[in-house]
Amino acid sequence: MLIGEVVGSVVSTRKDEQLESFKLLVVQVRDHSNQPKDQYVVAVDAVGAGTGDLVLYATGSSARQTTTTKDRPCDAVVMAIVDSWDVGGDNVYEKWSS
Amino acid sequence: MILADVIGTVVSPSLQVPALDGRKLLVVRPVQPAGAPVGPKPRIAVDTIGAGVGDRVLVIDEGNSGRQILGAQDAPVKTLIVGFVDEVELGGERVYNHGGEA
Amino acid sequence: MYLGRVTGRLVATVRYEGMDGVKLQLLESLDEAGVPTGEQLVAACALSVGPGDLVHYVDGREAALALPDETFVPVDVAITGFVEQAEVNGAELPLEAPQ
Fold it and tell me: Would the pTM count as exceeding 0.95?
């Protein structure tokens, strides 16, 4: 799994029918110190995440292990919303801090 | 999945792995949400939706998903165009709008 | 899949079981203009292609699936087709390697 921030969404009305009903999020990847990387992935939302949320996403076969994506063509899924995050004992992110 | 722009076509009709027979191959350039190109290498993708040069598309680049869409077990194919992008919204702003102003 | 140009052949007699008879080709990946990116690869190949040829190739687990017989082999790059025509950004890519 990797950590990223939901920075947007993609609308695609004409797509393969096996992708119907997927909500597609644009996730910008974060590094270990919570800095945004210049790297983006379009991931299927399985937890009701929205813009601004820090999330966990899974890729590859693991992306098909949610009820939303099970047995469907999907190579990246947002499967958790991050509440807080520590590295080496230091808090690098706290969702509810403000 | 990634976002990409269709920038060209490729044909290899007489000599290719059998799984590609009858498939349309397009050259796509991976892009960031706002449209900046990603990396120097274009990808060759199997078109499943009738895309053409100039379209911004959704690309799946993972084998199991690809084989599932093609309905072809054991096909050595993992890069597929699976959707047309209508809109991309980034930080509350629309940064791409198909057929209209961003 | 990606665009590539075959640059040479490679011979390795001692190889993992299941890879017998699989040809190995040297390959460089190409950018949008057909210019080598600098990345050099060794690819397994079940097709009749040779040095100078424009090809497309696949990487990762799918590469082993491009081989005709044994598909559970430790191969991560394989040539998937011989490109006869390629048009990118409105221009034809050269089919022959520039001399």
Answer: no
